[in-house]
Specification:
The protein has one domain: 2-Layer Sandwich (Alpha-D-Glucose-1,6-Bisphosphate, Chain A, domain 4). Helices cover about 25% and strands about 40% of the residues. It has three helices and nine strands; from the N terminus they run ββααβββββββα. A nine-stranded antiparallel sheet has the order 1-2-9-8-7-6-5-4-3. The longest helix is centred in the C-terminal third of the chain and has 29 residues.
Length: about 170
């Protein structure tokens, strides 16, 4: 008998001295489903909450060298944007992209998503966000942010996992 993987809480740890963080969560959805949620306008359905911020627009040219961007609005009503380019794309296992948030001035970091299939059909999502340099506060703040973001992604993907379990996503 095979049991479905149980989702645990998202977690993250920042190595502020190295200017990088790692975050992870296990979800019940297959890697293809998670990859699609990260690389399409579907992202606006799950990235955000009423008490933090809402992502309101996503565009992306999902190819190496292709640009992506998002716009949103904070709970305080202030607009924000984040953009970058895709550096490596290996569906549904790996996605690497640069990250240029409007609130960080000229800081450009790199995010690597690794999607590892789990027994029973789930996926372990591991995020490596690096390039913070000496911006220790930003690095630590992003680690806290990734816990929220991976929780939102997990909730979104897990909500559709039972429907998608019998079908190829």
């Amino acid at each position: 008998m095979t049991t479905a993987p149980k989702r645990g809480a998202a977690r993250a740890i920042a190595d502020v001295g190295a200017g990088m963080l790692l975050a992870t969560v296990d979800v019940a959805a297959p890697a293809e489903r998670v990859f699609r949620a990260l690389t399409s306008a579907e992202l606006i359905e799950w990235w955000g909450s009423d008490d933090t911020y809402r992502t309101t627009r996503w565009t992306g040219d999902v190819r190496v060298g292709g640009a992506w961007s998002t716009d949103g609005i904070g709970a305080d009503g202030k607009p924000f944007s984040v953009g970058g380019e895709f550096v490596e794309i290996d569906p549904p296992r790996k996605l690497v992209q640069t990250w240029r948030p409007s609130w960080e001035g000229n800081l450009v970091t790199t995010i690597t998503y690794r999607l590892q299939p789990l027994a029973g059909g789930g996926t372990r999502i591991t995020v490596r966000h690096e390039g913070f340099g000496d911006r220790a506060e930003s690095c630590a703040g992003h680690a806290e942010g990734w816990v929220r973001v991976l929780g939102w992604l997990s909730d979104h993907c897990d909500a559709v996992a039972p429907v998608a379990a019998g079908a190829r996503s």
